[in-house]
Amino acid sequence: MRTENEAEAGPAEWIETGPEDATAPVRFDTKIAVLLRDDLEPWQRLNVTAFLVSGISTASPEVIGEPYEDADGTGYLPMFRQPVLVFQGTKETLTAAHGRAQARSLLTSVFTSDLFGTGNDRDNRAAVRAVGKDQLDLVGIALYGTRNAVDKVLKGARMHP
């Protein structure tokens, strides 16, 4: 039997909101979101976002769509099958969102300020492992779960400009 938290973080599904044809809009019942601290430099925002969403793609393969192909038959890698929304907030907003995400057992990836000083995955993991979850100096988190659960976690955050 699933718990309430497991139901909130359940698998990705989409709902067609129009007639069953190729032009009908698609609405997902899940959300992929990134929350960045609002004091990051532009290059840091891009770097953190790229790292964070890679965690979502590996933990939830159902969020990946089909491979792409152009008119000449050249193949390209598949990407997320749904939009990734990027938000920003203060350090306090990020800390509160992290706590709410953990309480809801949402799939979450983290990026701490310490990771700007490392240069590889082993050192990144060691830097996070060295600090308790309530003391992490978060600069970004990525979330995946039902729209409603993710929206509740992001309370107080605003869309990235």
What's a quick, concise take on this entry?
The chain has 161 residues and is α+β, with helices and mostly antiparallel strands. The chain contains five helices and nine strands. It has helices at 4-8, 42-59, 91-103, 121-129, 147-153, and strands at residues 14-16, 26-28, 30-37, 68-69, 75-76, 84-89, 107-112, 138-146, 158-159.
Binned strand content: 25-35%
Tell me the strand order in the biggest sheet. Answer: 7-8-3-6-9
Number of strands: 9
SSE sequence, one letter per element = HEEEHEEEHEHEHE
List low-confidence stretches.
1-19
* Structural class computed from helices and strand pairing: alpha+beta
Annotation keywords:
161 residues; alpha+beta; disordered N terminus; two-stranded antiparallel sheet; 5 helices
Protein described:
This protein has helices at 4-8, 42-59, 91-103, 121-129, 147-153; strands at 14-16, 26-28, 30-37, 68-69, 75-76, 84-89, 107-112, 138-146, 158-159. It is an alpha+beta fold. The strands form 3 sheets. A 5-stranded mixed beta sheet has the order 7-8-3-6-9, sandwiched between helices. Strands 1-2 form a two-stranded antiparallel ribbon. The protein has a two-stranded antiparallel ribbon with strand order 4-5. Strand 4 (68-69) and strand 5 form a beta hairpin. Helix 3 crosses helix 5. Mean pLDDT is 87; it is low at 1-19.
What is this structure's SSE topology?
Layout: H1 4-8, E1 14-16, E2 26-28, E3 30-37, H2 42-59, E4 68-69, E5 75-76, E6 84-89, H3 91-103, E7 107-112, H4 121-129, E8 138-146, H5 147-153, E9 158-159
Parallel strand pairs: 3-6
Antiparallel strand pairs: 1-2, 3-8, 4-5, 6-9, 7-8
Helix pairs in contact: 3-5
